[in-house]
Amino acid sequence: MKDTVSERRDFLKSGALGLAGGALVAGAGMTLNVQQAAAQASADSVLRKVIDRGHLICGTGSTNAPWHFEDAAGNLTGMDIAMAKIIAKALFEDDSKVEFVRQAPDARVPNIVTGKVDVCIQFMTVNGARAQKVNFSRPYYVEAIALLTRPDGKIKTFDELLAAGAAAKASILTNAGADQTVKRQLPDAEVLQLDEQANVIQALDSGRVDTAVVDLSTVWWLARQAPDKYADAGHSFQPQLYSAALPQGDLDWLSFVNTAFNVAMHGWDTEPYDIAFKEFFGQEPPKRAAGFPAF
After folding, report:
1. b/e for 86-125, b at 16 or more Cβ within 10 A?
2. Is there a contact between 201 and 148 (Cβ–Cβ < 8 Å)?
3. Where are the beta strands (DSSP E) in the chain?
4. Which pLDDT tens digit goes with each residue over 281-293?
5. 230 in helix, strand or coil?
6. Are 245 and 120 in contact, with CB atoms under 8 Å apart?
7. Given 3.30.360.10, 3.40.190.10, 3.40.190.100, 2.70.98.10, which CATH number is that of 34-142+241-281?
8. What pLDDT, in 10s, does the model give residues 183-224?
9. Dihedrals phi, psi of 253, to nearest 5 degrees
10. How far, in Å, CA of 143 to CA of 214, rounded?
11. Which CATH superfamily is domain 143-240 in?
């Protein structure tokens, strides 16, 4: 009978041969060029069209930091832009091979349905009504509502806002149920509804309110950009999913985009996602642990 060390050595040898065999198979697969790879997709798949064209066409916005906005040189940047580049890199090993179509939020679904863009990545909340018209990728971010305060304010934290009762004032974008959204978290606060997000934040700037009720990503972005002016009250609620929108009836394209996102968020090439997440949200992405897949 072999001793334990010998058994382990033989096992490792067989494992090495298995890995070598896998590498050879993978190597053989890698000899396919992009046109040959595209031929594996169905004839009418967007995946094939994109690879034949040689670049991705992505619908997005340009006016909402930290998701999509212009840098000092006029180039689009933001978390949505980073996700589009992740797809382009997976397609062509070149994240610059993406054309951005700037579109209004109400054009997101129509531009997918009509085929004007291959994918829409524009801080798009997943819901049932939209899912009847487009496919959604796996989520790449979980948004929430949060409370933006001022570091020099008398009331800075959620606990302080709650304790202030009717003395606390909160601004929020005018919307159906906006009052109830605030009241569920701050039951006694005075609610000020305003017509534009900029005015919601300006009310905090001017001292008219103690907190601006906005997206968590906005809180993170502003607190990172101007820590002397803005602070995170430390409370978020009503989570919602952000995903890429894709044409319905195209499993090959949906599966490819999901694969690209999974690899970037949980696989071997997480650096582009991690860099963007830290840059635009000021947050460290969670460490990925080997073993049970937590997607």
Report:
1. bbbbbbbeebebbebeebeeebbbebbeeeebbbbbbbbe
2. yes
3. 56-60, 63-64, 68-70, 76-77, 98-102, 119-125, 135-136, 141-149, 169-173, 190-194, 211-215, 231-246
4. 999 998 898 999 8
5. coil
6. yes
7. 3.40.190.10
8. 999 999 999 999 999 999 999 999 999 999 999 999 999 999
9. -70, -45
10. 11
11. Periplasmic binding protein-like II (3.40.190.10)
The position carrying tokens 């937590």 is: 294
Tokens read off for 279: 């840059």
DSSP secondary structure string for all residues of 20-80: HHHHHHHHHHTT--HHHHHTTS-TT-HHHHHHHHTSEEEEE-SEETTTEEE-TTS-EESHH
Q: What is the largest CA-CA distance in the chain?
A: 83
Tens of pLDDT, residue by residue over 53-86, are: 999 999 999 999 999 999 999 999 999 999 999 9
- The CA-atom distances, in angstroms, between 211 and each of 36, 159, 189, 203, 240 are 56, 12, 10, 9, 21
Give the whole-angstrom CA distance, residue 27 versus residue 221. 43
